[in-house]
């Protein structure tokens, strides 16, 4: 799940200050789950923008803003989009850019995109994956140091953790302590002795 | 100089290294003057690399200034600010300028320093950086291309000293496997803990140089216990500093006693005073260590 958070209304109004006749596109997958772009949030956004003098021509809620096939598929959802002079997408950055790829009018986003994460037992799990390509998470007990260690270290912790808490944010567990505890539990501490090569960032 | 640092590492001499920071600006005379107090005392001088993520003159440039002034530098190199291209390029440049010793470390996160919003790099970690150094030493670059002249570095790394931290010990073992010639440690206040650490790594055959930061006040001791990972100032030392009429003098006495005990356990001592080296010569003589 892509983790997003809603931008403050003032920031959105500032983005839209020279725009009107706005069409809103929500996202019924990640953003809906996180309450940053599902139907209730889209309707609330319409109320707020109208309160601030904006004209909303219509709205649509595709399954996922990041899988919009074409402009025609958006017209099928709500033909009012043809009257729009700009589009506000209430999804992640990927949703905004997908919509922007099928239309000529200006496209804006209402959210900040934080990370690839998940949610479990009512808690939001940030930075579970960095989408870096070759996946080595299995060598770390299913806990990814590339995404959860702020330094992305692959061969063990830095010297900065205190009492198992991260140097960068003392509220967070040092991910290496979590990795150690997990590998100990599954009897695979041997994996910690592997010397890992640096991450390849090559784009083929 | 009869011996260089690498030769001394392989001798039986008890080593003294000391840490200095490059200036924050282009005027280097004050920093150089501070180092001058170490002449005839320190076997080599560590030059910090934007320590605590606070921007200073480059460790490479200041190491060269030390070299020109007749000192033997150990250029510190962190993984925070350069990718693998920048690291190799600086290493080749350092070698060409006559810098022969380096000490690699991860580097504090930028948010700790004076440019908290800067982009952290960490393209390599300290273990991988040691591997890279050994590649340059064998005449090839990271991707295997032949260099027009390789390097021959004496390369060290750092370690915490808490024997109860298995991850730190495993990482230290990896650093040695990847070619560390020496290890400098976090500050030692608890000699018992250091003894246990040395016991825990007794299978590792690499010279260990024990870190030392003379205490100056009770506040400093409390700060170290609270904020510096792996540093443990025992209660007994806290009380000595607290009750002392002159905490700086007491801090030097404690440090000199620690050095005396450490001589039996380690290959040397690495002095990291906060501020200046004005007391370093006296500290070493209190500990019974004469010049090199």
Automatic annotation (TrEMBL), chain A:
Start and end residues of each Methylene-tetrahydrofolate reductase C-terminal-like domain: 110-201
Organism superkingdom: Archaea
This protein's record includes keyword Amino-acid biosynthesis: no
GO molecular function: zinc ion binding
One Pfam family matching this protein: DUF5981
Keywords carried by this UniProt record: Metal-binding, Zinc, Zinc-finger
Classification via PANTHER family: 5,10-METHYLENETETRAHYDROFOLATE REDUCTASE, METHYLENE-TETRAHYDROFOLATE REDUCTASE C-TERMINAL DOMAIN-CONTAINING PROTEIN
Protein's name in the database: Zinc-finger protein
Organism phylogeny: Archaea, Methanobacteriati, Methanobacteriota, Stenosarchaea group, Methanomicrobia
UniProtKB/TrEMBL annotation, chain B:
SUPFAM superfamilies: FAD-linked oxidoreductase
Biological process per Gene Ontology, one example term: tetrahydrofolate interconversion
Alphabetical UniProt keywords: FAD, Flavoprotein, Oxidoreductase
Annotated InterPro entries: FAD-linked_oxidoreductase-like (IPR029041), Mehydrof_redctse-like (IPR003171)
One Gene Ontology term of the molecular function aspect: FAD binding
GO CC terms in record: cytosol
EC numbers for this chain: 1.5.1.20
Cofactor dependency: FAD
Pathway: One-carbon metabolism; tetrahydrofolate interconversion
UniProt enzyme class: oxidoreductase
Similarity-based family: Belongs to the methylenetetrahydrofolate reductase family.
Protein name, per record: 5,10-methylenetetrahydrofolate reductase
Species, as recorded: Methanosarcina barkeri str. Wiesmoor
The organism's taxonomic lineage, starting at the top: Archaea, Methanobacteriati, Methanobacteriota, Stenosarchaea group, Methanomicrobia
């Amino acid at each position: 799940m892509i983790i997003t958070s809603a931008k403050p209304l003032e920031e959105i109004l500032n983005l839209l200050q020279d725009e009107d006749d706005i069409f809103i596109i929500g996202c019924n997958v990640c953003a809906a789950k996180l309450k940053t772009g599902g139907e209730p949030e889209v309707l609330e956004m319409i109320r707020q923008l109208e309160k601030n003098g904006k004209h909303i021509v219509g709205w649509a809620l595709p399954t996922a803003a990041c899988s919009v096939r074409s402009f025609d598929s958006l017209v099928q959802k709500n033909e009012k989009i043809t009257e729009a002079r700009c589009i506000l997408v209430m999804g992640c950055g990927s949703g905004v850019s997908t919509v922007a790829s099928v239309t000529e009018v200006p496209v804006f986003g209402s959210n900040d995109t934080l990370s690839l994460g998940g949610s479990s037992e009512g808690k939001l799990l940030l930075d579970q994956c960095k989408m870096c390509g070759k996946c080595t998470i299995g060598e770390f007990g299913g806990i990814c140091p590339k995404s959860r260690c702020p330094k992305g270290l692959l061969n063990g912790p830095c010297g900065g953790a205190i009492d198992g808490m991260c140097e960068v944010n003392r509220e967070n567990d040092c991910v290496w302590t979590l990795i150690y505890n997990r590998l100990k539990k599954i009897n695979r501490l041997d994996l910690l002795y592997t010397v890992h090569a640096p991450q390849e960032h090559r784009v083929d | 100089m009869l011996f260089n640092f690498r030769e001394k590492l392989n001798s039986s001499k008890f080593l003294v290294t000391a840490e200095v920071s490059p200036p924050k600006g282009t005027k280097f005379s004050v920093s150089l003057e501070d180092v001058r107090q170490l002449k005839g005392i320190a076997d080599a001088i560590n030059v910090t690399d934007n320590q605590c993520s606070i921007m200073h003159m480059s460790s490479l440039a200041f190491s060269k200034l030390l070299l020109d002034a007749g000192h033997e530098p150990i250029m510190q190199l962190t993984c925070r600010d350069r990718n693998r291209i920048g690291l190799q390029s600086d290493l080749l440049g350092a070698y060409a300028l006559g810098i022969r010793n380096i000490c690699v470390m991860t580097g504090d996160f930028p948010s700790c320093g004076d440019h908290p919003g800067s982009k952290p790099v960490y393209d390599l970690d300290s273990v991988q950086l040691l591997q890279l150094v050994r590649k340059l030493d064998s005449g090839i670059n990271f991707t295997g291309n032949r260099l027009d002249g390789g390097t021959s570095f004496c390369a060290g790394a750092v370690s915490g000293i808490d024997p109860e931290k298995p991850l730190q010990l495993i990482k230290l073992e990896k650093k040695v496997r990847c070619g560390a010639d020496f290890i400098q440690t976090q500050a030692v206040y608890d000699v018992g803990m250091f003894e246990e650490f040395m016991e825990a790594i007794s299978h590792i055959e690499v010279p260990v140089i024990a870190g030392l930061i003379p205490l100056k006040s009770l506040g400093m001791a409390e700060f170290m216990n609270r904020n510096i990972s792996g540093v443990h100032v025992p209660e007994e030392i806290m009380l000595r500093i607290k009750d002392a009429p002159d905490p700086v003098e007491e801090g030097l006495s404690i440090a000199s006693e620690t050095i005396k005990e450490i001589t039996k356990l380690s290959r040397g001592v690495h002095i990291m005073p906060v501020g200046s080296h004005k007391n370093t010569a006296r500290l070493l003589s209190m500990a019974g260590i004469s010049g090199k």
